[in-house]
Design goal:
heterodimer; A: about 180 residues; alpha/beta; B: alpha/beta; globular
Chain lengths: ~180, ~230
Amino acid sequence: MILILDLNYRKDSLYYSEYVEPVVKIAEQAGECKVAYYKEVTSEQLENAEKVILCGVSVKDNEFAQNLDYFKWLENYEKPVFGICAGMQVIATFNGCERVKAPEAGLVKIRLKKENPLFSNDFEGYAIHNYAVIPNGHLDVLGESDACAHILKLKGKQHYGALFHPEVRNPSILLNFLKA
Amino acid sequence: MKLGILFSGGKDSTLALARAMEKEEVSCLITLVSENKESYMFHTPNIQLAELQAEAIGLPLIKKQTKGEKEAELADLEDAIKEAVEKHKIEGVVTGAVQSIYQAVRVQKICDKLGLYCFNPVWLLDQKKLLEEVLERGFEVIVSGFYAEPFSEKWLGRKLDKQAVTELLELSEKYSISPAGEGGEIETTVLDAPFFKKKIVVASSEKQVSASSGTLVINNAELVQK
């Protein structure tokens, strides 16, 4: 089961169809999916999941960043996790990275920095964010734009983060994560 | 949360409106009437019908003229949104963007600048599912423009019923076009929906057709009781 977490400011918000459903649509190509709201995810759901995706949120929504306690489960979680945009920021800040203002909007060119199982060439991804992270020694930078690191991987775990939104133009990146 | 809907009168923005009404409070519609028929942002036939549609829905309308000059038209959009904030205290804007990064990014940037939420409730919705939802929700939609093959004059004024949707899906398979017109192949006008308080009846219209495109110009329309 692929567990998909809704990180929006409110459960079942108007953002659900924009930031969660497109991810579910892609993930269903790889297996059975279950969606949970991040503040309500249970240990049982995390245990039963084979992989977890943390969805992105809107530019204006910073609620998740003020509720990082709800992501404490990441600390001892060994299963693969993929964070999109806000989800990437969660994984990075949870591992000590600083969150900084680095707005990008639209298609950005992302250059391959380190070989990895998710993508193998430079590509264009859809970015819509005001914040990025400064990666520290706990994370490998797999891809970056002119402005910031775009794809990170936590060393020692299959925890990935993409600042851009792969569900928009690069579903293969999500599918490569899910099918690996 | 009070929201303003960027409203073109077509099926996508009307579907976005319907979805928004289920989750938040919709305070107004916002429409830009472009003098430039080639505008990337605002290019809907019969946009002048928006006032009648707003009356049918029972929502106030902020309507602004724009010359439709690329990028400059965004200043007009920003002014319209600011007026919606001032008059109707909106905290967010809703668009009917489905796949257009061009449109979505520009509205997102304006909303970010003005400190507003930006919702795109039909973003990346599968086009077949979009058409099916329009049917399921009972919208009365007509095709009001065609701008690419294999569409022709016979589609102008046609209701998007089950048969029409079936044909659109067949055409999309055969010709690799977007069945819901996301590539600009067709434009639509919504005449009625369950949440409309009155319905629109077209009293007179004319077809303006050239070799590869055509528009159903609605000259006269009226509201009738449901």
